[in-house]
Amino acid sequence: MNVKVGQSMKSVSLKTENAIGVFDSGLGGLTVMKALMRVLPTEHIVYLGDTARVPYGTKSKEAIIRFSKENVTELLKHNVKIIVVACNSSASHALDILQKEFPLPVIGVIGPGVRKAVSLTKNKKIGVIATQATINSSAYNDKIQESAAGIRVTSQACPLFVPLVEEGWFNGPVTKSVAETYLKNIQKAGVDTLILGCTHYPLLKTVLTKVLGRTVKLIDSAQEVSREVKRVLEEANLTRRGKSQPSYKFLVSDQPQHFQRLAKRFLGYNIHHVERIY
Ligand code: DGL
Fold first, then answer.
1. At 92, which helix (H) or strand (E)?
2. 55 Cβ below 6 A of ligand 1
3. CA of 130 to the centre of ligand 1 (A)
4. Residues 48-58: tens digit of each pLDDT
């Protein structure tokens, strides 16, 4: 596995006991954290949700890059050995820059999702749904074209999905009707594989399957990136060896109580302490 690391890698000591650092624009990245907890059950994890500046999906490239760098800088204060960019909008605009500028492995959600989609498509028609920022970056399309020739990609920004998920409207008639509208072109294109290119979308799998039918395979980036993180830690000899329970730390830039209240929707269990930073 080829991990690009920054120049100062040599001067930083990454220890097996250090945590996995995950950041997202807000709550949605908890879908990635949940998958990491399942795939790497002994690892400490520090999660940073930039709740003061969410959403990133409507922001400019420059703003997303600045926020992403600040998030990594913050996570480095918490003894992390690897960074997971859970936010697709960040990964699509800032991953290369973070990999160049920071002295530890930085993994994004896009590559792993693309590899899985490319391996599964039979008819070579892949759909991508994501925030406007991610679609504008063309990161998924570019990565797909790099990985395999002759694949037709149909992309669709679905900006209303994030607030619907934040409201807990995963599966009602309003969400179904919004999904039907957004997915018209994807359906018309006849894709057999759909990349869920946003942290929030795995929570909409049921409604997406209702609209598209069971034959369209849904690619959950959260699962794919977790496997990639496992591989990278193993290859770098950075897997935690301790047998004691792992610790999970939650940091947010605003409204810790709100984060704590909604976290259960994404993680499936209650969290008890959320720290405010910045
Ligand atoms: N986390 C963002 C993403 O995956 C979705 C929410 C936002 O727009 O900030 O693109």
1. helix 88-101
2. yes
3. 8
4. 999 999 999 99
